[in-house]
Amino acid sequence: xxxxxxxxxxxxxxxxxxxxxxxxxxxxxxxxxxxxxxxxxxxxxxxxxxxxxxxxxxxxxxxxxxxxxx
Length: 70
Hints:
Blueprint: H1 2-27, E1 31-33, E2 36-38, H2 40-67
Antiparallel strand pairs: 1-2
Helix pairs in contact: 1-2
């Protein structure tokens, strides 16, 4: 059961990060890390990576459920 919980938490965190990137893109929020301004294309990249990792984790949860059903 620990694997399933880990995958669900990972999927939820990555989905939340993807949603934050979408919000930043829609609202054109600026992001500064120290003296460096992160361009909006950085959020496109972050969105793609976070969404892919979230989808991957949710698919692994589905496979886990299918293989552990009684």
